[in-house]
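Assess this one:
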Amino acid sequence: MVNRKELNPEAGPEAAFGARLRRLREARGWIQDELAALIGYTGRHISAIETGRKPPTLRFTRSADAAFGIADTADSLEREWREMRHGSLLEGFPQYVGHEGRAVEIRMFTLGIIPGLLQTPEYARVLADSAIRRGAITPDQADERISFLAERQASLVRPRLPMLFVTLDESCIRRPVGGPVVMEAQLARLAEFAEQPNTLLQVAPYEIGERRTFDMPVILLTLPDRSVISYAESQAQGYVDRESSSVMPLLTAYHQLQAVSLSQEASVAMINQLRKGTP
């Protein structure tokens, strides 16, 4: 074959994806133009993905899976694509997100930073750019995180809306992120969130002191079968817990935290005071 470039699957996730795409194509005796015609792309596009010069997209992987007859299987390219995308995410987090998309109730408590599901794109971008400057992630990984967050937020808009209970430590709304314009938009987003029929937003004020029941962020998901799982993160990884003996005390602690937090009305009033620049 003329100008056939040798591939090195060990060069990285995209290289491994491209090498597998070539193996699947050649196993069926197709040239690049033939595969391209089947899935609505050009032969040049196929070549660029096989050689790692262009990253695959979700649309591309689904189209290729249909052509190869491996859609919705353990060997699908879409599954490999999702694993590749999740490489920039904290270990354990993709597993949690799979449960989040099915949950009928979501309870979360956070400190310092607005939780991802409530972040505006501008707020999320500031956090991602900060991680780039620290050398924690690459620009491409930052873009993946922003895109993935948008997908998470969109997945909650479904025929049967989940109930979202969000308790924010007061530090979340007082910590400046990205400057006044970004924070104003973010605080406005919180106020809008509180107006939805399937939400409850509360602020845990500093004044509750030692009655704050959590010293780290925690998320509790109620699944369609009414089972409850928890998710918590350390600096190194995230952890999903399904054991009722450890999850149910967290649920009790969450309810205790809600009891000493501000009502939704008082919480929104505090948020709006900050928007006006008053302490």
Remarks:
- Residues 89-275 form a domain with the Endonuclease; Chain A fold (CATH 3.30.870).
- DSSP finds twelve helices and six strands in the chain.
- The mean pLDDT is 88.
